[in-house]
Amino acid sequence: MAANAAPGTGAVPGATPAARPLVPVAVGVLLRPDGSFLLASRPAGKPYAGYWEFPGGKIEPGENLSQALERELREELDIRDLRATFWRSCVMDYPHARVELQFCKVTQWSGEVRPCEGQAIAWQQLPVDVAPVLPGTLPVLQWLARERAHEGPTHIT
Ligand SMILES: Nc1nc2c([nH]c(=O)n2[C@@H]2O[C@H](COP(=O)(O)OP(=O)(O)OP(=O)(O)O)[C@@H](O)[C@H]2O)c(=O)[nH]1
Question: Domain Nudix hydrolase spans what residues (predicted)?
């Protein structure tokens, strides 16, 4: 420990606290030709269980974004062969983790969407009528609203 560290903390007074690690997450915005998009509820046992989000999950070491997205959507929804393009990213700082959400628009896939992890799923239009919505999902609803010139609330609270 540094000589001037605060007792018992290992922290140096006045020093900038070390940034928490940034966990990369691959997220799919599945879009149907009518503009509807898929939300899924977070399964029991995970932080924010029951909150609605876009399907996806952490990028594992050695994976790139598209590999992680293929794996996550196969595991969660039993779909594969995605036509996916990176859209936008944002950072969310939760008590349980600091994550970088990398959102991809997914416009084609093979297989029928089927929830494989006990999660509920819902095809949605704006305003979203499922609740509660995960904080990290809200920016995406804003981006969609801007793209679609949607006015008014993006979701029901
Ligand atoms: N999948 C997904 N995760 C999101 C969204 N928005 C958002 O903040 N997150 C956050 O991103 C992280 C994704 O982690 P996860 O727990 O779903 O990942 P995972 O499927 O790999 O889970 P595991 O670690 O239990 O295997 C969580 O901290 C979650 O709160 C979203 O729209 N979709």
Answer: 21-146
Structural contact between residues 43 and 51, judged by C-beta atoms closer than 8 angstroms? no
Superfamily of domain 22-148: Nucleoside Triphosphate Pyrophosphohydrolase (3.90.79.10)
Probe residue for ligand 1, chosen from 77, 101, 106, 128 as the CB with the greatest number of ligand atoms within 8 Å: 101
| Enclosing H/E stretch for 58 | strand 56-58
The whole-model pTM stands at: 0.89
**Mind listing the pLDDT tens digit for each residue in 20-70?**
899 999 999 999 999 999 999 999 999 999 999 999 999 999 999 999 999
Single-letter amino acid code for the residue at 46? K
